[in-house]
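## Example record

The block below lists the input lines for one assembly entry, exactly as stored, with component labels intact.
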Amino acid sequence: MSAIFWGVIGLVAGLWISAQMWDAALNLPPYFSFGRLRTFHTNVLVYGLGIGAEFGVFYYLVIRLTKRPLLFPKLARFHLWLFNIGVAIAGITLLLGWTQSLEYAEFEWPIDIAIVILWVIFAINIMGTIFKRKEQQMYISLWYIIATIITVAILYIVNNLSIPAGLDKSYHLFAGVNSANVQWWYGHNAVGFLFTTPILAMFYYFLPKSTGLPIYSHRLSIISFWSLIFAYLWTGAHHLVYTPLPDWIQTLGIAFTLFLIAPSWGSVVNGYFTVESDWSVMKNNYLTKFFIAGITFYGLQTIQGPSQGIRVISSLIHYTDWVPGHVHMGTMGWVTMVICASVYYIIPHIYKTTIYSEKLANAHFWIVLIGQLAFSITMWITGVQQGAMWKMTNPDGTLKYTFMEGLLRNYPYWQMRTLAGVVFVVGMLLFIYNVMMTIKKGKAELEAKVEPATATA
Amino acid sequence: MSENKKLYSNALIFSLAAAITVLIGTIVTMFLPMFTEGMHPKLKELKPYTALQLAGRDIYQREGCVNCHTQTVRPLKSDVLMYGDYSKAGEFAYDRPFLWGSKRTGPDLARIGGKYPDDWHYQHMTNPQAFYEKSNMPKYAFLNDRKVAVEKTISHMKALGFPYTDADIEQLKNSTEMDAIVAYLQSIGAAVAKKAILQIDESMVEEVSPFAGNKDAVLKGERLYKAECAGCHGQNAEGNIGGSLVDYAAAENPDRDIYLTIANGFEGAMPGFAAACKSNFFVTYPRLKVQCRALRLSMTKKKSGRWWSTLRV
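Predicted structure tokens for the full assembly:
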């Protein structure tokens, strides 16, 4: 039992710290789009930080929610090593220019195969543990975990079907318009099932755990869950508004995108009302504000996202910096907040200690919040400006600005954004420091406990 | 309720239910459309990529050009004015994958093929800042020094089933990566007939520039020249890719001819600037009085009225 217990510690800590190292390193280079580096940035963050954290946290969650140890603890340890090696190699191949040019699925086929193997190892362990659980009912978080595992497998395999042409090159099995449709069915749902459902799984577990307040409505969480995973898969085409994709698919995508507000807000409302029963936890429990700020940004994200799908709005902001602004509110405001809070909760629990510094954690919260807001807001402003300058015409119908004139007006905003990124990274460095110190503290306390015991023996 | 309990306590049933739920949308919006004609249109004029073009496309992918450049012109007035005819579904049948992109940090490239002469691309790819001083595009000078990977390209052509001849392979052997990417860029959008979005004819332009002798206009024109024209015609109008304008001015062409040249361009040699010309804006250079003003194009009225209506807006 204790071996497994320590195995999990190794996992969570190892995964987390390794993932964080990708993150910090990646936020430092200037943001100006450089073909290979941008791909490197998105993929290492999605696969290294996002999925890495999800692997670790899910192992922790599943053990608690099934009331039993992992089915294959050694496999999990192997999984950790394979994952770290995989992310390192995969990152290098992107810098070498091995790419399928499919957003968030850029990795070439050898890496794809490795990722599928990783996912299968993970799925066997998690699903196996869930199947052999000691707790009869499955908690909400487990639903989201199961949905994540199944859907990501389907998405990833289908979109990466390709014709290999050498180790470093392959061509999409799907061509032209069809290729676009498959890619954005994947692309949008990769966001959904890597950045929404897994984070909700964490949210539904750690919010009640850290505050001691029960989830407000079980029925609401049921409705939210099923309608969310049902509607998500219809919406990919909102990335292809005004492209040559058949109109009916676009319109269907937009309609379901608007519908998606409902289940998303189901979880938002559930979160708020959970804390509604005792708002003092916001003050007394430093973790609560991470979750509440996180779910607030999730709420804003899921209002903003669907409105972006509407044709009129899309015609203004699509292809501009508004979209990175939107994406970063989700990743920096929602995903990162909840993951950080989950780790703040987990680490002291596995090391049987308390957090190294609550003050630091509070500072981390505010710095990260400011960085993220500054980032997103500057991007929205510059995005609207860009879109407007592209559209603006003279009274005689000619364009008012050339492309270059529009571009030059972005520069000050892009500089501000870099600054905001630096602020965010400083916040994240505080987080890593705090977690490392907590682990150090936990180990020291454990040794202190063990020593007297051996002395008396 | 008892059913519900079973659902949430039986992992297998739950997993199946979740899988079915996510598959419904998948089937309707992604899987079934694959078998409809709308997803596989092909323009008659569309040709598979030649070996050199494919090598160029591979480089375009490798360098991640798609991260900054889209390749789809939306059926919106401003998109069409800025780039050209909107993208047709049948243009992309040989694109694996599609490269429509999602962000325009740089301009759209769906209508770049044939817009400029090859020389423009060679020089611009090598040093974009020579054309636009503050451009944020990276320099791709290293492509000039690299030979195309011939064996790889052949295996790529085979994988895609594109036809090629021995002459194509010979050409590959003598080509740099820069040759390849320029060949690819020039092939983009080739299946769609070029049509000038704004064609200015004589009747729309005054014979003599109303700005003749206006000093302010000359200054503005000079700035505009530096921003838009100097890359091809030289900082001092001495000529580079485009001809010398010193000579051109010496020839004392009538104002109206100069105006029409700038507005309409020459296909494959010089892009027309009609859509980008500002009303009451002047393009002029010492001794070169060109005005690009008042494209009172009657766009809202007769001629181009039909053109607007073809848009889906």
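Chain A has two domains: 1-173, 205-441. The first strand of chain A starts at residue 162 and ends at 164.
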